[in-house]
Design brief:
Number of strands: 2
Order of helices and strands: HHHEEHH
Mean pLDDT: 76
Oligomer: single chain
Number of helices: 5
Largest sheet: 2 strands, antiparallel
Structural class: mainly alpha
Strand content: under 5%
């Protein structure tokens, strides 16, 4: 029984290897007879353009979410209107600086920035705009709002798939 299992494993391995090499030899055997075919190689600019658009959409979405969270926080008296305005102003200034130059302080390389953890909410505490407690409350509300929005998008996407299938 063990010999039969071993034989099957060896034969299946040889068969898979043969299929891989036969596919590779066919692709290398094809010859391009038309020398004027223009092949466009993907460059970093080709890839970066859609990513910039997606990043801009994501930033706009996060800005709207932050504004909603701040409005809810002001309504529930977690922060004051003045503090909310300061947070929005800080975000706008940060966004302007970031759009101007991603590597302004040498901390950003390949689109990733080397900074302290906590991001915006940690900066708000360091800058003295909010206290740690208020910043943590805003962070939690932002997380909950993002989760809620993600679930809504997923639900809409699934409903679209179901209605398109039927």
């Amino acid at each position: 029984m063990k010999k039969k299992d071993l034989r099957i494993k060896i034969l299946s391995g040889m068969l898979c290897t043969g299929l891989v090499f036969s596919g590779a030899s066919i692709s290398f055997a094809t010859e391009n007879t038309n020398g004027s075919i223009n092949e466009k190689l993907a460059t970093s600019m080709d890839i970066k353009a859609p990513m910039d658009k997606m990043e801009q959409e994501r930033r706009a979405e996060m800005k709207v979410t932050l504004e909603a969270v701040i409005a809810e926080s002001v309504a529930s008296k977690i922060i004051t209107r003045a503090e909310g305005d300061k947070v929005l102003k800080h975000v706008a200034l940060k966004s302007q600086k970031k759009s101007g130059d991603d590597n302004r302080d040498g901390k950003c390389k390949n689109g990733k920035c080397q900074g302290g953890k906590g991001g915006l909410f940690n900066e708000l505490v360091i800058e003295g705009i909010l206290t740690k407690e208020k910043s943590d409350a805003l962070r939690e509300k932002m997380h909950l709002k993002n989760t809620e929005l993600r679930h809504e998008k997923l639900k809409i996407g699934l409903n679209t798939l179901v209605t398109n299938k039927g």
